[in-house]
C-alpha cells in the first residue's frame, strides 16, 4: 500500500495530512503490522513503520552501512529500536533484572537509558520483536505509546531525597500514564495474542464501535504529534519542566489547599531549514486543586488534539498553538472543557540544577540510594569497565528498585546503610568510576543516540561524547578553570532529544562533520540558549570554545557561571573574536517569564 497524498477530513473535522490519513485508516493502530510481521521480508513497509511507533518501535537502518549498501544496490541493513515506557522511570529490582537479561537475547547487548526515563534496545531484528514484547509484558513492562502521536512517557523528578514523599508524584504519574495510554486493543492483539497484562489499565471497548468510543480522548487520528508531560517538585528541575508540553508542579494554592501549578507550551524541537520552527519555554497556565489535576491535564491534551496543526507535522506541537494564540486563550479553552474557571498560577520558588542525584544520598526512610553516572545512558560492558554487570549484581543483592533519570543516569535505591561498602566494592571490582572519579565535564554533558541508529541524525552525538568531554576538560584545565561545570548537551540533529536549547552550551548536529552552537542557557533549565555559530567543523570546536573560555575567565563576575556570563554578554558581543563561521539570526524567546 502506498501512502495516499490527497488531503482528507478527520473525525474532529480538521484538515488531515497523509500521516493523518494513515492513522485514520489504521483500524486503531493496527495498519498492516500483523501481515507484515508474519511475512518473510526482513523489513516493514514505511506505512507499517509509522504505525509501529505507537507500539514503541522505530524501524531504522544502520547508517554506517547505508551509503555502501545503496552504492552496491543492496537492501538497507534494517533493524528496530524498541522503547519501554516507564512512568517516572521507576522499575522494581525484578523488572530491571528482566529488562537487563533480555539485552543478552536481542539487539547489540546494550541498554540505552533515555532522556525521558525510558529504556531502549537497539538493533533488534524484526523476528525478535514479538518475543521481546511478550517477555517485557510478563514483567509488567510495556512499550505501548512509548513513541507515536500520543502522550509519551510521563516524567517525574527522580531523586527520592529526604523531606519528600516520592510516592506522591509517582501515583500521579501512574494515573496519568493509565489515562493517556491508547484504549485500542491493537497492542495486545498484535504482540500478545490477545492477552492483557495486569498492568494494562481499563479494558478497551470493541473496535467495531465508533472511533470516539474506542478512543474517547484520541479518536481515530490520535494527536497531531507527540505530547510530553513531566511532574516535579517545586525548585527541582531535573525534568527540564519548561521544555515539556505540560509541566505539573505540586504546590499549595493561595488558601493553603493542595494542588499544582500547570505549565504549558514548552518544546525544543526545531528545524535547521525552517525558521518558523523554534524552541520555546512553557508558560504558567493556572493553579489547579489536586483532585482536578488529571482532568485539567486531559483538557490541555484535548486543546492540542483539536487545535494542533494536522496539516504540517513540523508545526504540530502545542508550543505553536500557545505561541500563536497566547496562554490566556489556551487557558480559556481548558476552562471551557472543564466547565469551571481556574485560579491564576501561584509563584514558584527558584529552580535548581537538576543533576544533583549522583553519588550517595539518604532516602526519607533511612535507606540510601546511589546515583550512578551512565555516560550517554549507554549501559554495556566494556574492557576495564563492566558497568552493566556491576549494576546487575548490585540490583540482585542490594537494591530494592531502580530509577532512571532524565539525564540518562541510574539511581540504585533502597540500599541498607550497612551494604554501602559492599556496593562500592562491586563498582570498583568492575572498574566503574564513582562520582568523585568523574571529571566535571563527564558529569555535566549529555548526548542523544544519533548515529548509527537514529534515522533523523545528521551527525554524531553519543559516539563523540568521550572525545568531546576530553576536549572540554583540557580546555578548562589549560585555563585554570578545572572546577567549572558547564551544563552541555550534544545532539545529532535539531530535534533536540538531549534538550540542548536549555543548556549552557548546546552542540547540535548540522552535517556529518559540522555543528551549530547554542550558548547561554542556565544549569537550572529556565533560560533558552541563544544561537551562536553555525556549521563549526568538528575539528574546529576548540577554536570556538577556547576563545570563549578565555573571555569568560577574564570577564566573569564573582560566582558567575558560563551560561550566565554568555547571557549577560549576548549574541553579537559573544561573536567578537571568534572564527568567521556562518552566523544565525536572533532567538525567538529568551527566558522564563520573558
Ligand atoms: Fe535522533 Fe535527533 Fe533525537 Fe538525536 S536529537 S536522537 S539525532 S532525533
Features:
single chain, 594 residues, alpha+beta, five-stranded antiparallel β-sheet, 17% strand, globular, disordered N terminus, binds iron/sulfur cluster
Q: Which radius of gyration do the C-alpha atoms yield?
A: 23 Å
Strand pairing plus helix content: what structural class? alpha+beta
Taking strands numbered 1, 2, ... along the chain, how are they ordered across the largest sheet? Answer: 3-4-7-6-15
Helix content: 25-40%
Give an overview in words:
With 594 residues, this protein is α+β, with helices and mostly antiparallel strands. Helices cover 30% and strands 17% of the residues. The chain contains 19 helices and 24 strands. The protein has a five-stranded antiparallel beta sheet with strand order 3-4-7-6-15. A five-stranded antiparallel beta sheet has the order 5-18-19-14-13. Helix 16 (465-478) links the parallel strand 20 and strand 21. Helix 5 (93-102) packs antiparallel against helix 13 (387-397). The longest helix is centred in the first third of the chain and has 15 residues, at 166-180. The radius of gyration is 23 Å and the shape is globular. It binds iron/sulfur cluster. Iron/sulfur cluster is lined by residues 448-450, 454, 456-457, 461, 491-493, 495-497. Residues 448-450, 454, 456-457, 461, 491-493, 495-497 line the site of iron/sulfur cluster.
